[in-house]
Amino acid sequence: MKNLVILGGGYGGMRILSKLLPNALPEDVSITLIDRTPYHCLKTEYYALAAGTISDQHIRVAFPEHPRLQIKYGEVSGIDLEAKKVLMKENSFVSYDDLIIGLGCEDKYHNVPGAEEFSYSIQSIEKSRTTYQALNNLAPGSVVSIVGAGLSGVELASELVESRPDLKIKLFDRGNHILSAFPVRLSTYVENWFDNHGVEIINNSNITALEKSTIYNHNNPIHSDAIVWTAGIQPNMVVREMDVEKDPQGRVVLTIHHNLPNDEHVYVVGDCASLPHAPSAQLAEGQAEQIVQILLKRWNNEPLPESLPAIKLKGVLGSLGKKHGFGLVAERPITGRVARLLKSGILWMYKYHNG
């Protein structure tokens, strides 16, 4: 019996399971899923959990059940590619015949002194819970500084406005406009929304250090009762420590079939993979579908395709509280209630199709 080991039950891992189970998995293959939580987490909604506008239960989806699926809870400490073993923190290991690495990402602190020690995070469900406790225990009038005005920072700031309108929110961004990956029209729309809701945007910022209750912008101290870091990501530590070829962002370089160049049995999916698009749930799911195609062909001793179609992304949607939103759909900017309804609908459909 061959053992397919999947590291991480994120969007990529879940899509692989949904494509193989219940009927597409060959009779001579079993699956071991390794994750540090006993359920799939909707990472795109961590901002709302941290702000306190949804409960923990709303962003949990049960893993599928199958006679040849074993779910192992624990934390991966390393991967021995030569021995084909996944090393676990409790000094055990799991052997594999084929391995899919989908361990996700962590915050990138850009060597800013004190950033990791004195800021909160929304990169994992555990850290989002901690951030929720910190933000919602603040006294009225407290200052919350959010470092990074990409999609995560903007959604957290807007959700916090609704959850805690008594707080003073500062949003720090390095560029001339927030949401630098979006068209200026969308950035301007979101900036106006923040202006109308009392969020202070600090453009052209340069965070040089963090201390307890203090954030330094261009070395100028600014008091803050809580600081949340949303200013960049990097691959999981396990992937960063792997001795394989990586791109300048530290993501693993792969063949066109999504496996390591020198090992056809090891695949990387999601945030840790070097792909032509920015990491996203959509991208991980599209990549996962192609990995399943390749695995089935290899298991059946069929020739592999010489090329795979480009993964098509449908767009990006962001929320501004519960009633407004923004995004790009088929490269067309949309704003307002329609954008928010679209995002809510997509989330509902995802949860419906995943049980």
TrEMBL record:
Q: What is this protein called?
A: NAD(P)/FAD-dependent oxidoreductase
Listed EC numbers: 1.6.5.-
Q: Which PANTHER family match?
A: 64 KDA MITOCHONDRIAL NADH DEHYDROGENASE (EUROFUNG), APOPTOSIS-INDUCING FACTOR 1
Q: Which InterPro entries match?
A: FAD/NAD-bd_sf, FAD/NAD-binding_dom, NADH-Q_oxidoreductase
- Keyword Flavoprotein listed: yes
Q: Which family does it belong to?
A: Belongs to the NADH dehydrogenase family.
Requisite cofactors? FAD
Query: One GO molecular function term?
Result: oxidoreductase activity
